[in-house]
Amino acid sequence: MRLEGSCHCGAVRFSCDSPHPVPYQRCYCSICRKTAGGGGYAINIMGLTDTLDVKGEENITMFHARMKDGLSEGERRFCSTCGSALWVYDPNWPVLIHPFASAIDTDLPKPDESTHLMLDFKPGWVEPQLGPRDKTFPRYPDESIAQWHERTGNVSD
């Protein structure tokens, strides 16, 4: 699926191909929550790095989150004009980028179930909205984004 995305002010537009476009993962970690998640969590999806096309790249700022043992290798990209979170790139998985679903303008498929992860880090005011088939994890699930799409039948042709 070709994903088209942008920031709020329109200074940055981007697109990429995604074999796994269903926005099913809700991350409650403090990094996602504080940099992109107004509802107490953020949703990112998977795209292929070599298909990324960016317009307005001069308006992008990169941020490395602070971890207990130093800076994260993950590169979080934001619009420097309006602050919209755009995507995360991690050099440990160089073929992937993870656009924030909130920045995607393309209609995305609706998940039949959601995975709520990093719940050990959610603030007390956040009550996850759990569906009957949703799964919850204190940290990371064992199932990858690709494995979830395959298990649930959400595989691109």
Automatic annotation (TrEMBL):
Family matches, as SUPFAM superfamilies: Mss4-like
Pfam families cross-referenced by the UniProt entry: GFA
Gene Ontology molecular function terms on file: carbon-sulfur lyase activity; metal ion binding
Superkingdom of source: Bacteria
Transmembrane segments: none
Keywords attached to this entry: Lyase, Metal-binding, Zinc
PROSITE patterns per the UniProt record, alphabetical: CENP_V_GFA (PS51891)
Domain CENP-V/GFA: 3-149
Gene3D superfamilies noted in UniProt: 2.170.150.70
Family (UniProt): Belongs to the Gfa family.
Protein name (database record): CENP-V/GFA domain-containing protein
Protein species of origin: Hoeflea marina
Lineage: Bacteria, Pseudomonadati, Pseudomonadota, Alphaproteobacteria, Hyphomicrobiales
